Amino acid sequence: MPLYAFIAKDKPNAVEHRLAVRPTHLKHLEALGDRVLFAGGFQSQAGQPTGSLVVIEAPDLASATQTFESDPFVTQGVFANWEISRWNWTVNNPTGRGQ
Predict the structure, then answer these.
(1) In which band, very low, low, confident or very high, does the pLDDT at 51 lie, cut at 50, 70 and 90?
(2) Residue 95 lies in a domain
(3) CATH no. for residue 41?
(4) How many domains does the chain have?
(5) Rounded CA gap, 87 and 82, in Å?
(6) Residue 48 placed within a domain
(7) Which residues, in sequence order, are bridge partners of residue 57?
(8) Model confidence band, residue 77 (pLDDT cutoffs 50, 70, 90)
(9) How far apart (Å, rounded) are the C-alpha atoms in residues 80 and 10?
(10) Helix, strand, or coil (residue 51)
(11) Whose CA is closest to 66, among 87, 42, 20, 35?
């Protein structure tokens, strides 16, 4: 199944809002089960969150878009902008998923 990367940047001064929404965001990702290959936050040099990277398996771009658009960080306005792209895990792919 193809892989899709979601890359998002937070709105300016969104740290408190991000932290408030984070538990719901994590529940959303947990509900996706093993469709999520990995997920994590971008950080400033000071260690403050500045955005997110999530990679999932999805049958097509429409399904991936629907999954990402239902993420609480999207629906509750944490991000200033985001993009979705089909992604190929070429190096250090431990399971060969997405190939």
Answers:
(1) very high
(2) no
(3) 3.30.70.1060
(4) 1
(5) 15
(6) yes
(7) 3
(8) very high
(9) 5
(10) strand
(11) 35
